[in-house]
Amino acid sequence: MKFGVVVFPGSNCDRDMIETLKNDLGQEVIELWHKDKDLSMFNTEDCIVLPGGFSYGDYLRCGAIAKFSPMMQSVIEFAKQGGKVLGICNGFQILCECGLLPGILLRNSHQQFVCKNVFIKEAASDTCMALKIPVAHGEGRYFADNKTLEELEMHRQIIYRYCDEKCVVNSDSNPNGAIHNIAGICNKERNVYGMMPHPERACSNALGNVDGRKIFAHLFGIN
Fold first, then answer.
1. Which domains does the chain have, with CATH numbers?
2. I need a labelling partner for 221 at 20 to 30 A (CA). Which of 25, 86, 112, 149 fits?
3. pTM for the whole thing?
4. Nearest CA to 194 among 221, 150, 159, 163?
Protein backbone atom coordinates (compact mmCIF):
# COMPACT_ATOMS: atom_id res chain seq x y z
CA MET A 1 0.00 0.00 0.00
CA LYS A 2 1.35 3.41 -0.97
CA PHE A 3 0.42 6.76 0.56
CA GLY A 4 0.52 10.06 -1.27
CA VAL A 5 0.67 13.16 0.95
CA VAL A 6 -0.53 16.35 -0.72
CA VAL A 7 1.35 19.53 0.23
CA PHE A 8 -0.46 22.87 -0.11
CA PRO A 9 0.97 26.34 0.57
CA GLY A 10 0.42 26.68 4.32
CA SER A 11 0.38 22.97 5.11
CA ASN A 12 2.29 22.47 8.37
CA CYS A 13 1.47 18.87 9.29
CA ASP A 14 2.67 17.26 6.08
CA ARG A 15 6.07 16.38 7.57
CA ASP A 16 4.39 14.87 10.65
CA MET A 17 2.28 12.66 8.40
CA ILE A 18 5.16 11.68 6.11
CA GLU A 19 7.51 10.81 8.98
CA THR A 20 4.82 8.82 10.79
CA LEU A 21 3.82 6.81 7.73
CA LYS A 22 7.44 6.08 6.75
CA ASN A 23 9.27 5.70 10.05
CA ASP A 24 6.59 4.61 12.54
CA LEU A 25 4.32 2.59 10.24
CA GLY A 26 6.81 1.45 7.60
CA GLN A 27 4.78 2.55 4.57
CA GLU A 28 5.89 3.83 1.18
CA VAL A 29 5.16 7.56 0.88
CA ILE A 30 5.18 9.91 -2.12
CA GLU A 31 4.94 13.68 -1.68
CA LEU A 32 2.44 15.38 -3.98
CA TRP A 33 2.65 19.09 -4.79
CA HIS A 34 -0.67 20.95 -5.04
CA LYS A 35 0.04 22.24 -8.56
CA ASP A 36 0.71 18.78 -9.97
CA LYS A 37 -2.01 16.48 -11.31
CA ASP A 38 -0.46 13.05 -11.84
CA LEU A 39 -1.75 10.22 -9.63
CA SER A 40 -0.97 7.47 -12.14
CA MET A 41 1.47 5.82 -9.70
CA PHE A 42 -1.42 5.00 -7.34
CA ASN A 43 -4.15 2.38 -7.61
CA THR A 44 -7.42 2.09 -5.69
CA GLU A 45 -5.73 0.07 -2.92
CA ASP A 46 -3.51 3.06 -2.16
CA CYS A 47 -4.39 6.19 -0.19
CA ILE A 48 -4.05 9.94 -0.75
CA VAL A 49 -3.69 11.99 2.44
CA LEU A 50 -4.66 15.64 2.87
CA PRO A 51 -2.70 16.78 5.94
CA GLY A 52 -3.46 19.42 8.53
CA GLY A 53 -2.30 23.02 8.49
CA PHE A 54 -3.60 26.23 7.00
CA SER A 55 -3.86 25.65 3.26
CA TYR A 56 -3.56 28.97 1.44
CA GLY A 57 -3.50 30.65 4.86
CA ASP A 58 -7.20 29.87 5.52
CA TYR A 59 -7.83 33.38 4.19
CA LEU A 60 -11.30 32.49 2.95
CA ARG A 61 -13.04 29.53 4.61
CA CYS A 62 -10.70 26.77 5.71
CA GLY A 63 -10.09 24.54 2.71
CA ALA A 64 -12.21 26.63 0.35
CA ILE A 65 -9.27 27.66 -1.85
CA ALA A 66 -7.43 24.34 -1.70
CA LYS A 67 -10.37 22.54 -3.28
CA PHE A 68 -9.61 24.34 -6.59
CA SER A 69 -5.97 23.21 -6.80
CA PRO A 70 -5.01 21.00 -9.78
CA MET A 71 -4.09 18.12 -7.47
CA MET A 72 -7.48 18.20 -5.75
CA GLN A 73 -9.24 17.75 -9.07
CA SER A 74 -7.21 14.55 -9.50
CA VAL A 75 -7.91 13.49 -5.91
CA ILE A 76 -11.66 13.93 -6.47
CA GLU A 77 -11.50 11.73 -9.57
CA PHE A 78 -9.33 9.19 -7.71
CA ALA A 79 -11.93 8.99 -4.92
CA LYS A 80 -14.79 8.59 -7.41
CA GLN A 81 -12.94 5.61 -8.89
CA GLY A 82 -12.77 3.98 -5.44
CA GLY A 83 -9.34 5.15 -4.30
CA LYS A 84 -8.84 5.76 -0.60
CA VAL A 85 -8.57 9.35 0.67
CA LEU A 86 -7.85 10.53 4.23
CA GLY A 87 -8.20 14.13 5.38
CA ILE A 88 -6.87 15.21 8.77
CA CYS A 89 -7.92 18.55 10.32
CA ASN A 90 -7.52 21.03 7.44
CA GLY A 91 -7.66 18.02 5.13
CA PHE A 92 -11.08 17.15 6.60
CA GLN A 93 -12.19 20.73 5.93
CA ILE A 94 -11.02 20.43 2.31
CA LEU A 95 -12.93 17.16 1.82
CA CYS A 96 -16.12 18.82 3.04
CA GLU A 97 -15.54 21.92 0.92
CA CYS A 98 -15.08 19.88 -2.27
CA GLY A 99 -18.10 17.67 -1.59
CA LEU A 100 -16.32 14.35 -1.05
CA LEU A 101 -17.75 14.35 2.49
CA PRO A 102 -21.04 15.86 3.70
CA GLY A 103 -21.36 18.68 6.22
CA ILE A 104 -18.98 21.47 7.11
CA LEU A 105 -16.51 22.52 9.81
CA LEU A 106 -17.41 25.72 11.67
CA ARG A 107 -15.62 27.96 14.14
CA ASN A 108 -15.20 26.28 17.53
CA SER A 109 -18.19 27.02 19.76
CA HIS A 110 -15.99 28.77 22.36
CA GLN A 111 -14.45 30.91 19.59
CA GLN A 112 -10.91 29.92 20.57
CA PHE A 113 -8.16 27.80 19.05
CA VAL A 114 -7.87 24.48 20.89
CA CYS A 115 -4.65 22.49 21.15
CA LYS A 116 -4.64 19.53 23.55
CA ASN A 117 -5.08 15.79 23.88
CA VAL A 118 -8.66 14.55 23.69
CA PHE A 119 -10.29 11.14 23.76
CA ILE A 120 -12.24 9.62 20.88
CA LYS A 121 -13.95 6.27 20.34
CA GLU A 122 -14.96 4.23 17.33
CA ALA A 123 -18.60 5.16 16.88
CA ALA A 124 -19.75 1.78 15.59
CA SER A 125 -17.65 -0.48 17.82
CA ASP A 126 -19.43 -2.79 20.26
CA THR A 127 -16.41 -2.77 22.56
CA CYS A 128 -15.31 0.65 23.72
CA MET A 129 -11.72 1.80 23.74
CA ALA A 130 -10.97 5.47 24.39
CA LEU A 131 -8.06 6.65 22.23
CA LYS A 132 -6.00 9.65 23.33
CA ILE A 133 -5.36 11.77 20.22
CA PRO A 134 -4.22 15.43 19.92
CA VAL A 135 -6.35 18.15 18.35
CA ALA A 136 -5.18 21.55 17.10
CA HIS A 137 -7.79 23.66 15.34
CA GLY A 138 -9.85 26.82 15.41
CA GLU A 139 -12.60 25.64 13.06
CA GLY A 140 -13.29 22.05 13.99
CA ARG A 141 -16.97 22.12 14.94
CA TYR A 142 -18.60 19.60 12.65
CA PHE A 143 -22.11 20.56 11.55
CA ALA A 144 -24.70 19.10 9.18
CA ASP A 145 -28.45 19.49 8.77
CA ASN A 146 -30.86 16.98 10.27
CA LYS A 147 -31.37 15.06 7.02
CA THR A 148 -27.63 14.62 6.57
CA LEU A 149 -27.19 13.55 10.19
CA GLU A 150 -29.94 10.95 9.80
CA GLU A 151 -28.18 9.57 6.73
CA LEU A 152 -24.83 9.51 8.51
CA GLU A 153 -26.37 7.51 11.36
CA MET A 154 -28.31 5.22 9.02
CA HIS A 155 -25.28 4.31 6.92
CA ARG A 156 -22.89 4.17 9.92
CA GLN A 157 -20.75 6.91 8.41
CA ILE A 158 -19.79 8.44 11.76
CA ILE A 159 -16.48 6.74 12.48
CA TYR A 160 -15.29 8.61 15.60
CA ARG A 161 -16.93 10.57 18.41
CA TYR A 162 -15.37 12.65 21.16
CA CYS A 163 -15.65 10.95 24.55
CA ASP A 164 -14.02 10.99 27.99
CA GLU A 165 -11.28 8.60 29.12
CA LYS A 166 -13.96 6.11 30.23
CA CYS A 167 -15.52 6.13 26.75
CA VAL A 168 -18.56 8.18 27.80
CA VAL A 169 -19.80 10.54 25.09
CA ASN A 170 -20.81 13.84 26.69
CA SER A 171 -20.62 17.60 26.18
CA ASP A 172 -17.69 17.97 28.59
CA SER A 173 -15.52 15.78 26.35
CA ASN A 174 -16.38 17.76 23.20
CA PRO A 175 -13.50 20.20 22.48
CA ASN A 176 -15.22 22.29 19.82
CA GLY A 177 -19.01 21.91 20.08
CA ALA A 178 -19.27 19.44 17.19
CA ILE A 179 -22.83 18.24 16.67
CA HIS A 180 -23.39 14.74 18.08
CA ASN A 181 -19.78 14.83 19.32
CA ILE A 182 -18.65 13.92 15.79
CA ALA A 183 -14.86 13.74 15.44
CA GLY A 184 -14.68 11.90 12.11
CA ILE A 185 -16.86 10.61 9.29
CA CYS A 186 -16.62 8.70 6.01
CA ASN A 187 -18.58 8.62 2.77
CA LYS A 188 -21.22 5.99 1.99
CA GLU A 189 -18.74 4.02 -0.12
CA ARG A 190 -16.32 3.96 2.85
CA ASN A 191 -13.24 4.98 0.90
CA VAL A 192 -13.06 8.67 1.92
CA TYR A 193 -12.34 9.48 5.57
CA GLY A 194 -12.10 12.79 7.41
CA MET A 195 -11.34 13.59 11.04
CA MET A 196 -10.26 16.59 13.10
CA PRO A 197 -7.91 14.85 15.60
CA HIS A 198 -4.32 14.15 14.54
CA PRO A 199 -3.47 10.42 14.77
CA GLU A 200 -0.11 11.05 13.09
CA ARG A 201 0.97 12.88 16.25
CA ALA A 202 0.30 9.83 18.41
CA CYS A 203 2.25 7.05 16.72
CA SER A 204 5.75 7.34 18.19
CA ASN A 205 7.04 5.76 21.39
CA ALA A 206 9.23 8.85 21.78
CA LEU A 207 6.07 10.93 22.25
CA GLY A 208 4.70 8.60 24.93
CA ASN A 209 1.50 7.87 23.02
CA VAL A 210 0.86 5.39 20.22
CA ASP A 211 -2.96 5.40 20.21
CA GLY A 212 -2.84 6.90 16.72
CA ARG A 213 -1.60 3.57 15.37
CA LYS A 214 -4.95 2.05 16.27
CA ILE A 215 -6.63 4.55 13.95
CA PHE A 216 -4.41 3.63 11.00
CA ALA A 217 -5.05 -0.03 11.81
CA HIS A 218 -8.81 0.58 11.96
CA LEU A 219 -8.98 2.51 8.69
CA PHE A 220 -6.29 0.80 6.61
CA GLY A 221 -5.27 -2.38 8.39
CA ILE A 222 -1.71 -1.17 9.11
CA ASN A 223 0.03 -0.73 12.46
1. 2-220 (3.40.50.880)
2. 149
3. 0.96
4. 159
